[in-house]
Amino acid sequence: MFNHLLSLLIWLPIIGAVPVLLAGSGRPNAARWLALLFMVLTFVVSLFLLPQYNATAGGMQLVESHVWIASLGVHYGLAVDGISVALIVLTTIVGILVVVGAWEVIKVNTHQYMAAMLVLEGLMIGVFCATDALLFYVFFEAMLIPMFILIGVWGGPRRVYATLKFFIYTFLGSVFMLIALMYLYERSGTFDMHVWASLPLTMKEQTWLFFGFLIAFAIKVPMVPVHTWLPDAHVEAPTGGSVVLAAVMLKVGTYGMLRFILPIVPDAGEHFTWLIVVLSLIAIIYIGYVALVQEDMKKLVAYSSIAHMGFVTLGIFIAFMLIRHDGNVDAARLGMQGAMVQMISHGFVSGAMFTCIGVMYDRLHTRLIKDYGGLINVMPWFGFFYVLFAMANCGLPGTSGFVGEFMVILASFSANPWIGLFAAFTLIIGAGYTLWLVKRVLWGQITNPHVAEMKEINGRETFVLAAFAALVLFIGIWPEPLVHLMDSSVTQLVQQLAVHKI
Amino acid sequence: MPTFNDILVLLPEFYLVAAACLLLLLDAFMKPEQRGVLHWISIAVLLVAIYLVIAGQPPETVTAFGGMFVRDRAAEILKVFSLLSVVLVFIYSRPYLVDRKLFQGEFYTVMIFAVIGVMLLVSAGNLVMIYLGLELLTLSSYGLVALNRDSPLSSEAAMKYFVLGALSSGMLLYGMSMVYGAAGTLDLAALHGATAHAGMPHLMLFGLIFMLVGIAFKLGAAPFHMWIPDVYQGASTPVTTFIASASKLAAFGMAYRLLEGGMADLAHYWQPMLAVIAVLSMAIGNLVAIVQTNLKRMLAYSTISHMGYLIIGLVNAGPEGYSAAMFYAISYALMATAAFGVILALARAGFECEEIDDFKGLNQRSPWMAFLMMLAMFSLAGVPPLYGFFAKYLVLQAAIDAHMLWLAIVGVVFAIIGLYYYLRVVKMMYFDKAEEGVLTKLQPDATLRVVLSLNALVLVALGIYWGPLLGWCKQAFVG
């Protein structure tokens, strides 16, 4: 059996970036088609994961392990569980849509844009596969370079500020994680995350390690109060950059929590659950209100992303509360599963929202809400998609946004009705900012004469939006395959939580 | 009496001395327009020297001339990389020297003499030998810095370098005399056993401190870093490249010989001193680099900070730490040659290309050069998957290994601060528009381009696969 599937997934897009770069600035079409070819190939390869991965058995599968640095015992170790598989497929789908979405939009240095996207894609898949902590860190950090270039070269007017802030902020978090990794290496003599999961650690050690990991992943998610880089980065990034950032890169933060905080420092995690729960609730409620008053559409969606990611962190950590205090395994699983579904769903919904904004921006070159109004009169098809994604964003049943949030709120209620109550606020606030956005942009009379001249979405844009719409509806109406894919992995994660390490 | 065997051990050094003298003669009889031949002969001479070092490598450590000269694995590795970096300097600097009418035989011979100094220094088994090697290296360097004698900036830099260098050599020598007074021997191996029970421990410590000053000066670590920015900026770029690469490898070799070879028993005294020097270097280097507008000066401050990281490896005072520090020195030499190589590739007659603003919009003018420079910058900043990250990682791991978690944390904090100025160069190249009137032509030298590309791509290759190199570094210090 061919057992290098994961390596192929990582390296195919990265190596594909070379011919795309060689196409040069003189042949943008060649670069586009090549990039699309490699994205589609990667997607097709990622589909092989679904039959190859045995969802019922769970655990880490498709293991690849080669000695990387013999004298340190570092391995090039890859493996996936259900959660990784779901995130990898999300990544490869988004990759295709981003390339198609940027087709005519990126006119300058197209080949470099496409190459950066391909490299980024490979690195993100690498993060979701790595079982060796040093390898994970390398992918985790290396992602910053293409993103830095993407925002800085093709971004908006304040792109330099935004991209420097993005890079330095994220780097700041991750170097503390590096210290934590080195400490664990000194303790255990290996970088194997599986070994670390059973490494006994005192409470003091766990506390330090917990905060080392937390600062890295909280910045990446981002959680309040270290979220301030995200609105800047989103506003200035090109559409494709925003889509990848919101759809996949933020998930790397919560994925890291699952892989590092939960299994390695569970006792510290339990001890500080209150902190994460409070921060998540602040993200859900306060950031929701912040989103309400935004005048820039991209900023609004960026803040709504933070609020939605609050659900993911809430779902993950509420499981601690349920398992350790009440011993309620079913509710804990429900919360964790909700968080996972929310991760995937938010990937599609936020990606779609940013694509919609990109479509409008390409026509009017403004992102301010007040410049729009009455768009439905000239772009009815676009309006259809926009309303659909807005509904998904505020969690309407039948869309993917509903499933995850509902599961997390249910689990929160069983942990503590107050937490559930506060979390449920999102249904009102989310509906508030999203519907108000739709009202101001789509409905009403056309006040800006330029809006009247806007053209309906073309075939390419329709394809991207329709693909997003299909996925949003699919998960919303029939979440069962997705839940089943991740089910045994979630169960194993929850079981691990119950184990004390002191 | 030296035996034939002694001479055999020193074969690469003897060979280089002879070759350098022959080159000098050759140059005297050569017409100026034939000088291109000299360039290639010099490169060939160095490549043969690399071959001699590798091929003649004894299976285990051997000494020659009564312990004066040590040929061990650590020395071999440092020699190979020093010679290699001088080869790179030669290849990168030819068009630069031709453009400025500095293309003379002296540059090649003096450079070869300097690298002989490096080779003697890293192989020294005796305090006198250390001093000899060091003087050969620094005297040649003074001359090289003053190579462009019509430039007031170069002359000023050479003068500063000479005065401060002489002062530090004096301190080193003074320290050595104290140590000799306390231990009664100049031989490093004999010192190794004598330091702990020296008759006059205070005198010994006194000597140690003065020797540390000499080491810190040679590395360019704060607070003995003052000469670095002026010399880097004032010297012509090829010479700066040499000082940033081979000279740093030599400084590491000297530190290793003195600290581990002679003073290992006093480690608990010099460890905290070096830790302070490391923190100061990282702080001053990284903070002052932020405000620089001249790229060579910025890289000078970046060197200071890098030496801080290298010293973290020395602080560990065990094989783990020395191998990490050596790995770091090699990585720094390769990164510095790549970064200065791009500057040399872009410079032309009347245009030094050394202001950071000169790099504005480089991606539009020459995407490949911009890409290579970006690799060098991200590697210097220590961003994975580039070589520089793993070098930083190893020294930080060595700090944790030595139970100095705080030093590792200080290290990463300054790495974040340092990130900014490297990113600024990338920003200039990629995000800014090229200014009107900036020349767009590149140096047409094909060898330069190919070798420079390889140099920068090695930073990626060694980032992805650095196991063997680390293995060699470890072998040099274990057992």
UniProtKB/TrEMBL annotation, chain A:
Main location: membrane
Residues making up the signal peptide according to the UniProt record: none
Membrane topology value: Multi-pass membrane protein
InterPro entries xref list: NADH_Q_OxRdtase_chainM/4 (IPR010227), NADH_UbQ_OxRdtase (IPR003918), ND/Mrp_TM (IPR001750)
TM segment ranges: 33-50, 85-106, 113-128, 134-154, 166-185, 208-230, 242-265, 271-293, 300-323, 343-362, 374-398, 418-438, 459-478
Compartments it resides in: Endomembrane system; Membrane
GO molecular function: NADH dehydrogenase (ubiquinone) activity; NADH dehydrogenase activity; ubiquinone binding
Entry-linked Pfam families: Proton_antipo_M (PF00361)
GO biological process, any: electron transport coupled proton transport
CC per GO annotation: endomembrane system; membrane
Residues of the NADH:quinone oxidoreductase/Mrp antiporter transmembrane domain: 130-427
Superkingdom of origin: Bacteria
Similarity remark: Belongs to the complex I subunit 4 family.
PANTHER family for the chain: NADH-UBIQUINONE OXIDOREDUCTASE CHAIN 4
NCBIfam families assigned to the protein according to its UniProt record, in alphabetical order: NDH_I_M, PRK05846.1-3, PRK05846.1-5
Protein name: NADH-quinone oxidoreductase subunit M
Species this chain originates from: Rhodanobacter glycinis
Classification lineage: Bacteria, Pseudomonadati, Pseudomonadota, Gammaproteobacteria, Lysobacterales
From TrEMBL, chain B:
Keyword Membrane: yes
EC number(s) stated in the UniProt entry for this protein: 7.1.1.-
Superkingdom classification of source: Bacteria
GO terms classed as biological process: ATP synthesis coupled electron transport
Transmembrane parts of this sequence: 6-25, 37-54, 74-93, 159-183, 203-227, 239-258, 270-291, 298-319, 325-347, 368-390, 402-423, 446-466
InterPro entries linked to this entry: NADH-Q_OxRdtase_suN/2, ND/Mrp_TM, Ndh2_N
Domain NAD(P)H-quinone oxidoreductase subunit 2 N-terminal: 9-89
Keyword Mitochondrion set for record: no
Localisation: Cell membrane; Endomembrane system; Membrane
GO terms, molecular function: NADH dehydrogenase (quinone) (non-electrogenic) activity; NADH dehydrogenase (ubiquinone) activity; quinone binding
Alphabetically ordered keywords of this record: Cell membrane, Membrane, NAD, NADP, Plastoquinone, Quinone, Translocase, Transmembrane, Transmembrane helix, Transport, Ubiquinone
Membrane topology of the entry: Multi-pass membrane protein
Domain NADH:quinone oxidoreductase/Mrp antiporter transmembrane: 124-417
Reaction equations catalysed: a quinone + NADH + 5 H(+)(in) = a quinol + NAD(+) + 4 H(+)(out)
Gene Ontology annotations for the cellular component aspect, listed alphabetically: endomembrane system; plasma membrane
One Pfam family hit: Ndh2_N
HAMAP family: NDH1_NuoN_1
Similarity field: Belongs to the complex I subunit 2 family.
Function: NDH-1 shuttles electrons from NADH, via FMN and iron-sulfur (Fe-S) centers, to quinones in the respiratory chain. The immediate electron acceptor for the enzyme in this species is believed to be ubiquinone. Couples the redox reaction to proton translocation (for every two electrons transferred, four hydrogen ions are translocated across the cytoplasmic membrane), and thus conserves the redox energy in a proton gradient.
Subunit structure, interactors included: NDH-1 is composed of 14 different subunits. Subunits NuoA, H, J, K, L, M, N constitute the membrane sector of the complex.
Name the record gives this protein: NADH-quinone oxidoreductase subunit N
Originating organism: Rhodanobacter glycinis
Organismal lineage: Bacteria, Pseudomonadati, Pseudomonadota, Gammaproteobacteria, Lysobacterales
